Amino acid sequence: MASPARSIFRAVLAGAIALSLVLRPGLAAAQFTSGDYLIRDTEIEEILHRQSSPIFAAAGIDPKGIQIVLIGSKDPNAAAAPGVMMVTTALIMQADNPNQLQGVMAHEIGHLAGGHAFRSGDGARAGMVPMILTMGLGVLAAIAGSGDAAAGLISSAPYFGALGYAGYGREQEARADQAGATYMEKAGLSGRGLAEFFDKYRYQEVLSQTRRYKYFIDHPLFSDRIEALQTRVTALPHYYKKDPPEALAEHEIMKAKLEGFIEPQVALTKYDEKDTSYPARYARAIAYYQLKEPDKALKRVDALIAEQPNNAYLYELKGQILFEFGRQEEAEAPQRKSVALRPDAPLLRVNLGQTLVSLDNRTKTEEGIVELKKALTQENDNATAWRILAEAYDKHGDEGLARLATAEMEYNIGDMRQAREFAIRARDRLPKDSADWRRATDIVLVSNPTVDDLRRQGGAGG
């Protein structure tokens, strides 16, 4: 099972298995009044994990216990909480190089390691406001009859609470700067990017609160702070160390991918046909996909695959395009290839499982169930995988397992009432005392059951 912190923040991401799926019109209800939305993308998560891991390690925090949360937002922002690093797309897009992005993450890790927000009663109160508002929107969505939107909004409340919670004072900002510089140096990285990024936004200091990026409201800039940071990092041994070529390449890939998905028209202008670099061609392929021109997109993806036949994410993209444009049978082969190349990436298995389950073939559905269960051994709180697994069991007529999988899905998006209801139904259809029956019982018992619920399932023990 995932740790409590990972479970809480993965629940925020319920319903999203890949970047393009999050942005589909059908999931528009998962967006919020702030304009922020939640993204799952294996390639970008892994790059961010590689970039932040040495900094977490330098701070004495195990990087393996960190969940990367990617937020689609027009505001550059980041926040670190126990077990979680949150980064917005705008921060990635506006960081000129990997070192600047790492610098901002180091600063947030400095706040986390220093326990700054958690020592502040004002911080706790600030966090409650967006959390309550987001939960309120969820309740309104439920009243309006939009169950999916309600679940997404309510389960996302902890994320907005965490960002609202991250308001700091001048002293804590300066301490986080110094801690971030220390961690960057200890990790063998230059602190230049940390100072550069804040200096780049020095102008925010003179803007009114309503015109500032939220990050610089929560993390107020002031000139003496920037000067003190610049003086410190300049004196450190690794100050002149440059970003390695592979890190620079990954940074450009992230930016190109995000541009292609989020602003496809802009991407086609920014990365025009004259630019033959890999990031530019990647962005164009994604942009045509988002603009509903699958043939143009596939032509460009195939050209990239011919050059990089071992790139799992290109096969993932090809499979996504084919699946979403109703070519499920063709999607199977590239998705199988993506899993073969990256067997440790659960989201790729979920994509493959979804395609196999969608095919009108019992054998394929059974194989899809196997793939989904493998993904769930790595991400047991992946609500999307549980939803697709429920569909697969239902196609097979396995009513007990279908209801248990639905209970798992509801549990992981935070709807305890529905989780309890489906778990009780599952118990009625599963062999008594089997492992699945016991799991259904566990869900009932941890989902705030009423006395009537306990009576319906035959008491606490069954």
Average per-residue pLDDT, rounded, comes to: 80
- Estimated share of beta-strand residues: under 5%
- What best-fitting shape do the alpha-carbon axes yield? globular
* Rg for CA atoms: 23 Å
Distance between the termini: 24 Å
Number of strands: 4
Q: In order across it, which strands form the biggest sheet?
A: 1-2-4-3
- Based on helices, strands and strand pairing, what is the structural class? mainly alpha
String of helices and strands: HHEHEEEHHHHHHHHHHHHHHHHHHHHH
Walk me through the structure:
This protein is mainly alpha-helical. Among the domains are: 4-234, no CATH class; 397-462, no CATH class. It has 24 helices and 4 strands. The protein has helices at 4-12, 19-22, 42-58, 89-94, 98-114, 121-143, 147-165, 170-186, 192-200, 214-218, 223-234, 245-262, 264-270, 278-290, 294-307, 312-324, 328-341, 346-358, 362-378, 383-395, 399-412, 416-429, 435-446, 451-456; strands spanning 37-39, 67-72, 78-81, 84-88. Strands 1-2-4-3 form a 4-stranded mixed sheet, sandwiched between helices. A hairpin with a 2-residue loop joins strand 3 and strand 4. Helix 1 packs across helix 7 (147-165), helix 3 crosses helix 5 and helix 12 (245-262) packs parallel to helix 14 (278-290). It is globular, with a radius of gyration of 23 Å. 52% of the residues are buried. The model is unreliable at 1-33 and 118-167 (pLDDT under 50).
